[in-house]
């Protein structure tokens, strides 16, 4: 198992690549969408939450990420000793009509195919994505974690209807009237995913890129009046069965699964790792269940993290694990300190897990 660090767009700097290596990371997961343009500005630093207008304006609908940009990023990371493992999340500006089934569907499918091909050309093996209309929304921050550390959580259902002009918790049309967007049905949303996979998986196979789906974050059946796909662990299987392929994989978010009511996070880890369907892992800790949960320090929540690591290892998972996000620590660099704490813990836990299984003999 390999340790990686995820960096938001504004954190993709040489200094942060060095920070990642100093924390023990060998791999990098990069976000190219900027989630920090929203109002009100996030006062607690690098944790995207946002209000009813979400994370602010999406990117440039006419400008896809170029192969050159991806190669430059991969090389800049490699210069500091990091392998670029994945890009996480498509820009809603490039694919919103796939999510909401709008008039630009065909153009947006071409956008995604082009992007996946470019990842392949740049030798980036994984594209993480989240197939969701309302996106990652309804979260709050507060001094929820040990020692009053600022962390992300949810304090109840979030039903404020999503307005037209938004998709995936970002603004795609600033001039939109703001009327409520039409509500999809769950069957329509599953059908949109099936059409997406049917179009894009063959391209991903050819490009040598794995698509890795993140579960709905937070894992609610509906958010802002819109249905969601993966809010119970077994719904991940439904995604895999829609289009079986080595390119149809999971961005396995342990924290999100633990937030699912009645979910057995250990059984889910065992199942999907044994199937060989986990492209990479988000590993953070949490207390409570959606819609009432709080993120915690990695050693301090409901999840037995060493147990998750042992299950992953026993199931033969040899991919990248990133801490996803972490509570912000009280100091001059709250995000960095929080991440360094999580990375140190994970580094030690992965090492202990490896030594324990080596002393038990080779894996079956
Ligand atoms: O705040 C964040 O960075 C996250 O919540 C992400 O893990 C997010 O859930 C995924 O990128 C969705 O694809």
From TrEMBL:
<protein>
    <recommendedName>
        <fullName>mannonate dehydratase</fullName>
        <ecNumber>4.2.1.8</ecNumber>
    </recommendedName>
</protein>
<dbReference type="GO" id="GO:0030145">
    <property type="term" value="F:manganese ion binding"/>
</dbReference>
<keyword id="KW-0464">Manganese</keyword>
<dbReference type="GO" id="GO:0008927">
    <property type="term" value="F:mannonate dehydratase activity"/>
</dbReference>
<dbReference type="GO" id="GO:0042840">
    <property type="term" value="P:D-glucuronate catabolic process"/>
</dbReference>
<dbReference type="Pfam" id="PF03786">
    <property type="entry name" value="UxuA"/>
</dbReference>
<comment type="similarity">
    <text>Belongs to the mannonate dehydratase family.</text>
</comment>
<dbReference type="InterPro" id="IPR004628">
    <property type="entry name" value="Man_deHydtase"/>
</dbReference>
<comment type="function">
    <text>Catalyzes the dehydration of D-mannonate.</text>
</comment>
<comment type="pathway">
    <text>Carbohydrate metabolism; pentose and glucuronate interconversion.</text>
</comment>
<keyword id="KW-0456">Lyase</keyword>
<dbReference type="InterPro" id="IPR036237">
    <property type="entry name" value="Xyl_isomerase-like_sf"/>
</dbReference>
<keyword id="KW-0408">Iron</keyword>
<dbReference type="GO" id="GO:0008198">
    <property type="term" value="F:ferrous iron binding"/>
</dbReference>
